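As a warm-up, study this chain.
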Amino acid sequence: MKKGLLILGFIAAGFAASQSVSAQAVLGPKLTSETLEVNYGEVEYAGARERVWTFKNTGKEPLMITNATGSCGCTVPSFPKEPIMPGKTGEIKINYDTNRQGPFAKTVTVTTNEPAGSNTYTIQVKATVKPNPATPATPATPAAPAK
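Now compare it with the structure written out below.
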């Protein structure tokens, strides 16, 4: 009987501890966004470089963006340094070098002050940059006459 009560006590203590951890996660900061993608669409060569990714703090404590890095030097994010209060929105500006023609797919990795394991987000950044209008088109090579 004592063993049964002891085991039941351990189970109850474990359940209470897990509920405490869950409550902390709910009470802390929480980044929420409608999408993890920024699609420039088709843009002019050397055209508009900046797009904005918007997020909201749906948690109960201030949310901090602790870092945001692009996957290469041509994709540069800038992020808010001040805390995003509960219920408020924030934005990360993403600047892509549109002096590079053709399609691209890059990423921006965002890190927050949320609990470890749920504090990193990868934003997909993509577009197609139109050809440089200052570059003359290469003429087609005529086909050799048939013999």
